[in-house]
Batch of 2 targets.
Target 1
Amino acid sequence: MFVESCSAGAGAVALAWSSAAWAVDARPRAYGRALLVDELGDPIKAGALKPQTNYLFHYPFEATPVFLLDVGKPAPPATLRTRDGKPYQWPGGVGPGRRLVAFSAICAHKLVYPTRELSFISFRKGAVVNPKTPSAGQDLIHCCADHSQYDPARGAQVLGGPAEQPLCAVLLEHDARADTLTATGTLGGELFDQFFQKYALKLELEVGPKARQVVAQRSTVRELDRFCRNPVRC
Ligand code: FES
């Protein structure tokens, strides 16, 4: 089964998908401030990001991936709800044209996430071309595991598939003068506890003892195609 192949390696710990396991907190959570930098360590310029392109960094923990996207249009604030009904106000995009957004790349269905070897979840420009999974719209984050679809221009609200809550938002600050970006916290349905429980052994091998360490001061942004050897498109 797909999810098994995705999450199995290295003896992933089974997670009990009880409602208690999904109890989430929709309030903003401040973590350490992390300046977003390129692979040379220089601050990335918001205006230099390519529109509708998958960028990845890690936040708030060393092992938790985040999509950074210029969605190519203004992303207005949106009122959203977690799986257990907690409302929250996503503040919308930042930076030039309010087009820049960031969301946890951990699928809210069964926690599939991009690794260096494989990624089943990514932003897809245009409609998803798959007759078995008609797209719920254009320009979506699509998870090929079970075909959940999220709208990154609307706070990653769920548009299709089995996911029951939006992707957790990562809050960004844009310094208009320097054109730099800083991650400051999260908002919405965090699933990090479940993620670290499910993938404990796998993350130990992939990331090592720093996996659950809070990202300090800066985080490196890469295009998904540079981070992951096999970004799957379904
Ligand atoms: S893990 Fe099931 S849709 Fe993403």
Target 2
Amino acid sequence: MAEAAAVGSLSGVECAMESDGRALVLDSQVLPSVFVSRLSLAWSVSRHMVSCSARELDVFLEDAELPGRTFRVRVSRLHKSHSPEDGRKLARHVGKILSERYSVDLKNPDTEVRILLSGKCHVGLLEGEIDRSPFEARKSENRPFKHPISLHPRLARALVNLTRASEGQTVLDPFCGTGGILLEAGLMGCHTLGGDIDGRMVDGTRLNMSHYGISDAEIRKTDVSSWAEQNPPVDSIATDPPYGRSASTAKEPIGSLYSRAFSACHSALKEGGRLAIVLPSETHVPLACGFTLDSMHPVRVHRSLTRYFCVFKKNQSK
Ligand SMILES: C[S@@+](CC[C@H](N)C(=O)[O-])C[C@H]1O[C@@H](n2cnc3c(N)ncnc32)[C@H](O)[C@@H]1O
């Protein structure tokens, strides 16, 4: 939901949102096609028509206008209290009412009426499903330079989306590793800038970026602190620093590395820009001097490991 809300605010206007279980209704100026091409954690995107109870649905459907002549109805059940039969019944019922004015075409309709069945019925016109296969295809093991430290591409994509970076803006990852985060930023049309203290990672990121057709990435072998002198400031930073487990900290205590990282990111980022960073624990949040914590999203990796996807906004100087 945070990922969708961040994309919904790309126009610069904060989008209003209302959630109902796993359904999210956004009031945004951003085109639905942008949600479909950018989101990684959502399932589908529809143009919202109405949210109402099952009883109120008939009144709405009597006058509902659909684009084109043919339609089909699909119901996604988002709550386990709704049985498959509930979904089928609702689809048949809606189809019957709409078929008085439009023709049913189950195979190739002009429009698909998508109903998300949660607490309410959320009715919309389907704009697109989020295709998970390209994210799977870009998993670390399928890239020319592989290393198990890399985030899953869907999480890397979500992290970049949380920064609200738009096409053409610059995204920095000062701990780029194999380039998984920069890859997602580059594929969304952002200019990418990255660094890593380990030369093998720098070469690997360059290889991975060019393999996926991103030719303008600037990747340097450098310590995180060197970005403090970066000029001009970047629009966004998305990064996944070492946790002191498998990813190396070059023997530096984690607290000291994170303090340096926050200070460097603060200097490298433009005012009002966002830093989306994966932290191993909430205890590191107070190290983010000069930032305001926008949101924090725990992501459970396995039983004993949770990572915290944190979004910080750089404070305006007084
Ligand atoms: C968790 S990994 C990043 C993984 C990356 N997101 C990816 O997709 O592969 C952290 C990286 O930080 C690098 N690193 C450690 N200390 C650093 C420092 N002081 N400055 C810059 N990079 C550093 C490590 O070499 C490692 O590649």
